[in-house]
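To whoever is on call:

I kicked off a structure prediction for a single chain this morning and the downstream step that reads the tokens threw a length-mismatch warning. I double-checked the sequence; it's 105 residues and nothing unusual in it as far as I can see. Pasting both halves so you can look.
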Amino acid sequence: MKGIDLVKSLFGDKAISFFSNLSKEDPNAVVPRGRVVNVYITLQAENELLIRHEGGEDISLATIGNEKYPIILYDKIQSAWRRNILAILRKDYDKHVEEINKLRG
């Protein structure tokens, strides 16, 4: 499935107007048309969540209907992912330090 077909199936034909058509040499096509897209992901924890935060009062809450629920901000998910990737890279660097040094020259 092409990207444009996926966007159409998710958001309809109207969403296509947000994208610049760069397949033709048109100076107007390269003008940025910025939009904000809010993406929400729902995750269900398999066990008790341990979230880094400044204190007990620093937990973000989302209001859904009349209820408030604790949420994890994207920044916290992104930083947890980044820490995991950096740990993997450090481990692999230690394993392959001689190879890497040869490539560096």
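Update from on-call: the warning came from a stale cache, not from the record. Cleared it. Sanity check on the structure: The radius of gyration is 22 Å.
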